[in-house]
Amino acid sequence: MQFSSKPTRPRTESVVPMINVVFLLLIFFLMTAQIAPSDPFEVELPASEGQQPAEGRDVLYVSAQGELAFDGARGEAVFNAVASEELRGPLLIRADARVSAVEIATLLPRLSAIGISETVLVTTQ
C-alpha cells in the first residue's frame, strides 16, 4: 500500500510586520501634523493683484457684519486678547470683502493703541 503525502503549500510571509509599520507611520503623521482650528465664521476674502502671500500665525477675523474674532475672543474682547498675546510676526487681518474700507480704517488706530505696529490684510488673487 502506498500512501501519498499531502501536497505542500509554499510558506507565505506574514503581513504583520508591514501592518505594524503602517500603524507606526500613521501615528507619526498624526502626532506631528498641525491641525488648524476652523475659522470662527465664513469670510470671503477681497481680491487683489499682489504676488506675495501673507505670512503670520496670529489672525484677526472681521465678518461681513463687522463682528471681530481673535483666538476664541469675540467682539470688544478681541482687543484685550490681542494686547495680551505675544504675536509671532505681523497680525493678519482676514476681513470679508463686504467690509467697508472705513471699518478697516477705524480698526487700525485701535490696534495701534494697544501696541500692534504691523498688520497685513489677507487677500486672494
UniProtKB/TrEMBL annotation:
Entry's localization field: Cell membrane
Swiss-Prot/TrEMBL keywords: Cell membrane, Membrane, Protein transport, Transmembrane, Transmembrane helix, Transport
Source domain of life: Bacteria
InterPro entries xref list: ExbD (IPR003400)
An annotated Gene Ontology molecular function: transmembrane transporter activity
Family, similarity comment: Belongs to the ExbD/TolR family.
Name used for this protein in its record: Biopolymer transporter ExbD
Lineage, top ranks: Bacteria, Pseudomonadati, Pseudomonadota, Alphaproteobacteria, Rhodobacterales
